[in-house]
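Researcher: I'm preparing a figure for a lab meeting and need a structural model of a single chain. I don't have an experimental structure, so a prediction will have to do for now. The sequence is pasted below. Please return the structure as tokens so I can convert it later.
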Amino acid sequence: MKTSDQKKKFCYLGVALACLVTVEVTAQSPYSWRGPERNGNYHETGLLKTWPTEGPALIWETLDAGKGYSSPVVFGDHLYVTGMNEDETKEIFSAYTLTGKKIYEIVYGSPWDKTYPETRTTPTIEGNKAYVISGAGEIVCINIKDGAIVWKVDGANEFKRKTGIWGTSESPLVFDNKVIYTPGGDVTTMVALNAETGKVVWKSKPLGENGTYVSPLLIMHNGKKKIIAVTGHNVVGVHPETGNIEWTFNDWGSKDAGRENIATNTPIYDNGFLFFSFGYDIGAFMLKLNVDATNASLVWRNNDLDTHHGGFVLHNGIVFGSNWINNNQGNWVAVDWKTGKTFYDNPWSGGKGKGSIVAADNMLYCYDERRGTVGLVKPNTEKFDVVSEFRVTKGEGPHWAHPVIQNGVLYIRHGNALMAYKIK
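Model: Understood. Here is the structure written out token by token.
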């Protein structure tokens, strides 16, 4: 029989190997937005299947993260997160120990200056550097050892950013010594910057559309890498070495009006198929890529899973997420990956609504954006099956930050508050 310490070592080794596999398959940094593959799935095992009535044990909490909707990233023995400074005029990058002690905070950029200015960018960590994109469109490289800014590019001005009414809301994609930013507009659609220097590697052709609020995804399809991104009116496939836009999809039916101001969710990819959903009654779409991923065709569309900005996850052939009824309401939905058939479309009891979702160890973690309830949900095709739940009471503003799971700890961010819960 293995000892407790031995079990822990095997568990951590499994997590490390899972991240290694991710790096080998896609070469994108696994320390970033929505987990190792940017799809909301975390490679954790041995997690609790139920929680106490009051919720899992609180390990630590802090109220000095600064206001923000971004998620934290755990790298090594530190945690990194973005927020706003006290007078809410600048965006800050903070480093914490895994016991919640702040090591440093630095100012790196300016927030969006209109509605919902709170920080949005989840850091991407690669080596000893962090990469962030401010609400004002500044791409910044930070040395995580001391918080020093390595380089900074004013992407909004240099690339003539064209954005919707909520500015830039993008977590940078980092791979092969490149940092990807999607300014949109009439100069370019997407740019790749050298990760060491910030110099332009390539610029894609302009589509003349807004850059939306979607963090791009790197996929590996039949041995070929492709960047999947979203513009004001299109989902696009981009060649990662040249920036060439190889295909576009814009068959939204009659529901394209106003879409350029609302797209927020990073698509998910699996075995040649690409899924995305954008809320506001536009619905969900499944595309099939051709052999070399130079074209994509529509397979099915579904009007029930109409995710606003909480993301979605694929688990055992089922896509789970919440839909948009209005800006305050939404149900939780399960849809068959292959056919688009809706298995259920259920409200969360007790007045709770739509929100964000991640998955780990055969369970779903749902975070209600309206009341701040965190739910542990059993994935099935019968109903939205909440096993345990608790409510987050610290912090302020909408509960829009996506949960993070790392090394048996659940991290929940609400405005300036950041909490760590033991779930193992």
